[in-house]
Write a structure and sequence with these properties.
The chain is α/β, with parallel strands linked by helices and about 400 residues long. It is about 40% helix and about 15% strand.
Length: about 400
């Protein structure tokens, strides 16, 4: 098959959506398919990076989003020349990974060249309204949801033959976004397990990183991800301060960059734990397996995740997760079996203390690794490939 993957964002932006696209592209190519990435994400200075050079990426025009919370994201420009460009690739199926203008381009290309669309709903956008529009009151939120549904999610869902959801949690949002449940199928995103296997880790390099961040002999709690409001990182900092402010054998390592970095540094100062919290800022995605290996536990307090690939990556690295209770972690994160689950700041403080003294931690680490094996990129690609074939067959009958 000739597959077109349409996405607003791609490398060098690192997110769960980007990782999902990367793994899907690479695995489908190994299976013998020809894939193309259509994206507005073109950042100067990265043209020669291996990640760009190794893939068929067709760049489209872009502008910046008008929202401060999205300052490191781009928005695609709809133009006739891009529709004409898409026709040159003779696609068998279009896979849309974003609801915004890139989806509009995909819809036009589908209509013009009679190509079926498969759409993945990655993001529960209602959870991001207060982040995108921080200066407007909650009274305006229903209006923003109305705009999201009628301008973005509903139009692409209506034109799609099949709709992929990463978890059962996303069923909660289907009516809100005007999506027909009959078209949907749940396919958890897979990860590249080989990147996180112990035999592929250079332990001399790992030791150098421990020395760089002064982590030798310390028990390390990690956050890995984009530093954005919806991740609820201030709660992690406050809970960590409550649990370990007087314990010099513990460290909090915050891995990633993003718009709220200055705010988080102020939160650390406010809690007087500057000597116990380390910020790495943006890390090359190739190095991420090493950063998981620096940690003893991964903490995530977000309630906006639709799957949370960092959970799976941590489990694959034998790093238990301390995760906020949420529908997206059901059947994945199991309290005191492969990780720990909390609900709110008070419980997080309790779980931090409990995890640091847990007697059977080695068994939890082994269980974490076993759980991760259910989420390989190969299983993911095989399931998506079947959806493509079903969509092509169903579309051809119309």
């Amino acid at each position: 098959m000739r597959i077109g993957i349409f996405t607003d964002q791609y490398y060098p932006v690192i997110s769960g959506v980007v990782v999902s696209i990367k793994n899907l592209y690479e695995t489908l190519e190994k299976m013998g398919h020809t894939c193309y990435i259509f994206s507005c994400n073109k950042y100067k200075g990265h043209e020669q990076d291996d990640e760009i050079k190794s893939k068929r990426i067709i760049f489209m025009g872009n502008i910046n989003y008008p929202f401060p919370a999205c300052e490191d994201y781009l928005y695609s420009i709809s133009d006739r020349k891009y529709i004409k460009e898409i026709g040159k690739y003779h696609l068998d199926v279009i896979h849309v990974q974003s609801e915004f203008n890139i989806a509009k381009i995909a819809r036009k290309a589908s209509k013009k060249y009679h190509i079926p669309i498969v759409y993945t709903l990655h993001t529960a956008w209602t959870n991001y309204i207060s982040t995108l529009f921080p200066r407007t009151g909650k009274a305006f939120h229903p209006f923003y949801v109305f705009l999201m549904r009628n301008l973005f999610t509903k139009p692409i869902a209506k034109k799609s033959v099949k709709i992929i959801l990463p978890t059962k949690k996303m069923y909660m949002y289907l009516k809100t976004y005007g999506i027909n449940k009959d078209k949907t199928v749940i396919i958890p995103t897979g990860i590249d397990m080989t990147r996180f296997e112990e035999e592929n880790i250079d332990f001399n390099k790992l030791q150098s990183l421990k020395e760089k961040y002064s982590l030798v002999g310390k028990k390390v709690y990690l956050f890995v991800g984009r530093l954005a409001k919806e991740k609820n990182i201030p709660l992690i900092i406050k809970a960590y301060a409550s649990a370990f402010s007087s314990d010099d054998n513990k460290r909090l390592l915050i891995v990633g960059g993003g718009p709220i970095l200055p705010e988080l540094k102020k939160e650390v100062e406010k809690n007087n734990i500057q000597d116990k919290v380390i910020f790495t800022d943006m890390i090359d995605w190739k190095e991420i397996p090493y950063y998981y290996r620096l940690g003893d536990f991964l903490i995530n307090a977000s309630v906006t995740e639709t799957q949370g690939l960092t959970y799976i990556e941590a489990l694959a690295s034998k790093v238990p997760v301390i995760a906020q209770k949420d529908p997206c972690i059901e059947d994945v994160i199991i309290d005191k079996k492969n990780s720990f689950v909390f609900d709110g700041e008070i419980e997080l403080v309790e779980k931090l203390k409990e995890s640091s003294m847990f007697e059977d931690l080695n068994q939890i680490k082994e269980n974490a690794y076993i759980t991760s094996r259910d989420y390989t990129k190969e299983q993911f690609a095989l399931k998506v490939e079947k959806i493509y074939r079903d969509a092509i067959e169903e579309y051809s009958k119309k």
